[in-house]
């Protein structure tokens, strides 16, 4: 399952995302999404703006979309009927793409949300970015890399419910889902109790993460070796759209940077408001 959000706002990311009030259009591919994740996904979308249009595409004559019916009512999502005209061809994708372009040309929206982990939407993401729109992507971890890279920001849906949920679990009984959530909270509590040096050692074993942080730091740091945490987070996401501190069980980027042990963290009073602290990171010598 995936969601793609596209916005005309400035192309910057801070380590901790700010709430936005952009006008968003949410378009969902029901054939490639699970209804059980819609609540945390809509909450995540709300951080970026207001969903003024919410449409979901699929063949509603098929029983496999039955799980969506209650969700459509709760979240006021408009179902769009799309028959499968030919076996092996996905008419739903085409209908969604056509609507996305129609809505784009109205100029009435600050952003779009595309719900799918299907690589067929890679070109759509690229085309919308070519129009100057910001692309936030949401999808499963197995979403094809080209689709992830086509987004400015890609968030795995697994972390939205706090654990690596599979489609089978997501569609299973509520008790099973709740059990998985409880397991996540237990993991989070265990992480808090874990020795800081142990957490650092574990993070430093992730060579891909370390390489990403070093490359982003080199690009964001000034002559004095300091990198604003917001600019640092922005550069991380430019290099790796799928990066999210929650992938490593950290709710905030600053906490992850602190525990990785590579950087010094400095808090400097803001020039405009001394009460506000601006966070900088510097690579340890």
TrEMBL record:
<feature type="domain" description="HTH OST-type">
    <location>
        <begin position="205"/>
        <end position="280"/>
    </location>
</feature>
<dbReference type="InterPro" id="IPR021139">
    <property type="entry name" value="NYN"/>
</dbReference>
<dbReference type="Pfam" id="PF12872">
    <property type="entry name" value="OST-HTH"/>
</dbReference>
<protein>
    <recommendedName>
        <fullName>HTH OST-type domain-containing protein</fullName>
    </recommendedName>
</protein>
<dbReference type="Pfam" id="PF01936">
    <property type="entry name" value="NYN"/>
</dbReference>
<dbReference type="InterPro" id="IPR041966">
    <property type="entry name" value="LOTUS-like"/>
</dbReference>
<dbReference type="InterPro" id="IPR025605">
    <property type="entry name" value="OST-HTH/LOTUS_dom"/>
</dbReference>
<dbReference type="GO" id="GO:0004540">
    <property type="term" value="F:RNA nuclease activity"/>
</dbReference>
């Amino acid at each position: 399952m995936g969601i793609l959000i596209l916005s005309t706002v400035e192309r910057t990311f801070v380590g901790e995302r700010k709430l936005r009030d952009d006008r968003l259009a949410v378009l969902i591919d029901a054939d490639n999404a699970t209804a059980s994740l819609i609540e945390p996904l809509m909450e995540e979308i709300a951080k970026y703006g207001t969903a003024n249009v919410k449409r979901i595409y699929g063949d509603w004559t098929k029983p496999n979309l039955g799980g969506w019916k209650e969700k459509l009512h709760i979240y006021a999502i408009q179902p769009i009927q799309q028959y499968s005209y030919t076996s092996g061809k996905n008419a739903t994708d085409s209908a969604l793409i056509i609507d996305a372009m129609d809505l784009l040309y109205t100029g009435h929206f600050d952003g779009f949300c595309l719900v799918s982990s299907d690589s067929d939407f890679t070109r759509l993401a690229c085309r919308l970015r070519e129009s100057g729109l910001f692309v936030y992507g949401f999808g499963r971890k197995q979403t094809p890399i080209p689709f992830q890279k086509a987004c400015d920001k890609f968030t795995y849906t697994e972390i939205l419910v706090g654990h690596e949920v599979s489609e089978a679990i997501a569609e299973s009984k509520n008790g099973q889902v709740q059990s998985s959530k409880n397991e996540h909270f237990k993991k989070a509590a265990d992480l808090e109790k874990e020795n800081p040096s142990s957490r650092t050692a574990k993070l430093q074993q992730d060579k891909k993460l370390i390489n990403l942080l070093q490359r982003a730091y080199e690009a964001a740091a000034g002559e004095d070796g300091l990198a604003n945490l917001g600019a640092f987070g922005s550069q991380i996401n430019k290099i790796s759209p799928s990066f999210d501190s929650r992938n490593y069980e950290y709710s905030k980027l600053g906490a992850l940077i602190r525990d990785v042990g590579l950087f010094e963290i400095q808090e400097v009073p803001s020039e405009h408001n001394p009460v506000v602290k601006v966070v900088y990171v510097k690579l340890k010598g």
